[in-house]
Amino acid sequence: MTKIRSICIGFSFGVGFSNIISHWLLRGYDTSPSFALNLDTVVLTNTTESNSIEKSEIENGFFIEEEEEKEKEDTISTGDKANEDPNDRTICSYISQRSAASIWKENLNQIFHASRHRLDKEDEFIWHDFTARLLYYMSPQRLITSIKTIPMAQMEKVGHILDISYARYKYLQNSSERQKSSAVEARKLNIVVLGGSVTMGVNCHRNPVQETSRFARRDCAWPSRLQGFFEAIFPGVVDITQVTLGGTNTESGITIWDYFLLPQGTPYPDIIIHGYATNDMHVLSENEAMARNLTLEDMILKINQDFVRLVLKPRKECDGRPPPLLLYVDDYIGNEQQEILRTTSFSRAISLISNYYGIGYLSYADAIRTIVYGDTSEEWFSADGWPARNVHPGMGAHISITWLLAYNMLNIASVYCDRLDNTGNEHEYQAIGGLPMLREQKTFHGEPKPHPRSLPPPLSFNLTLNEISQLWTKETEIQDEFMNATTCPTFNVNRFRRPCAWSWVGGLEKSFDKPSALDERMKEVLEANDGWKSTADNGKLGYSSSRNGANFILHFPKNDHVIQTLNFMVMTSYGDKWKDSRVLVEATINDSNSDRPTYTKSMEIVGFHDKNTSETYNYKLDLGSQKVTPGDSLRLQITLIGGNSFKFMGMAMCDH
User: Fold this and answer.
1) Mind listing the pLDDT tens digit for each residue in 412-421?
2) What pTM does this model have?
């Protein structure tokens, strides 16, 4: 007895295309119809065995393979480990023989159709010609110029991501297995995008076809479009959470990630995409950098190094949180600054950081640089109105960045699949891939030792070649494992400890963008209020006052959590309305055991600056040794003591 199995090595608009463009996600083959490649023989290999599949019959454009019928139970993974069948990983043999550019070029039609926004109905496809023209501009050759660094230090994580995604893919394909009562649903791949107003989609509605209001900002922006692109290619496999807010930069991202101030229900991410490039150039002006005795480039390097180390450093005892794969997107082409060299401060700083820490870095700015510099009045890829100040590009940029990310992910997959061996140990020679057998096992003097598997020491002006090796080894003694996906094998993405007893960030999610939502959150701890209210003027949700002397009190009686820091996100603005804006924050702690006196700590926060823009700054009040412990009571009084206006954009009472 024999059975017939369809082997799809090819592309289609739908699941079939996922076999190629999502090789970085799905290592396996599809059993549903697709446009097959015109190949006579497909060789599938893995580290333990090599199988050859010969084309024995062609039917409806598919390769048909006959194989001995055998009973085999498919093991459905929970999503955190790969299926144990070795044939599940064989697709890498195919992708390693193809470049990302050639795969992309051969599938432009599928890419084009997958790029139609879900709100642009198929029977209309209003932006059909505009999308086609953009795709013609964003050729594989141009997309290649966007690749800055690949995540070499996180290749184990890349493999883990492939395993998670393929387990989900198999689960969705196997309908009979899903119907079993004992079946465990393989989870989705979780991606979180952090960013400011550009990533949020401000000005995304602008396009040369027609003015439209059918897209909300976040719906029009590239994170939403990337979700739609993935859904068209491999439905149900990937979930993207967009955590974007105007006026925020990487410093805000540090606060959001450190205290996990993500929308309720957000699973712990497998991938974080950093989208603060424009706001790092915008918010961190030369004046602010100079106040810290730094250049703008050094300032960007400092805060982004802090962010990278925070994301990549494994928590104590893993804390249930394996480090995510980290990808940086540079979308800044201008024109916060007019001088060309000054506009590249972010790219120079991140190029250094990404190479040093081995993370992924891709540059939309570099991909379109010749287009924009050749005609600075163009409006498809960059912001309109040049040379007037405008940093928010229109719809064309968001469509293009979607492709740029998809292409870079495909490229990362091909690099992973082109590994010389599967051990990841370049210090143990193997005669593979055409390399010769060694004539003798001999150690040569001066051969490099394996680099420590930990974060390297922080970059600083004082770090020297004389000490970096010793410092890196010392870091390893502190950090046992570095970015190893198997470090936390029992991790549950939906169950992890949140570090804050109470928190909110205005407008960070669709369900928390109206004053009524903030009113409900404030009621949980609001003890008294005189002159403060929830507002959403200019679409920015926050807690504000327009009267000097206004105050409110937050009370946390018999608190169940440790509270070490009080964190505030504050809108800092300009003009007569905000002149001299300043609040006094007073924290009072009452010990539940009454064996220590009441402790009070305070700070002042300024809400005014002399830049003609509104920005969000982060402030932290550390309670020091007098932190709030379970059972203690915390009372927080905030008073407007300067000016007539002040606005909080977020608050978080956290354990560190």
Assistant:
1) 988 888 877 6
2) 0.83
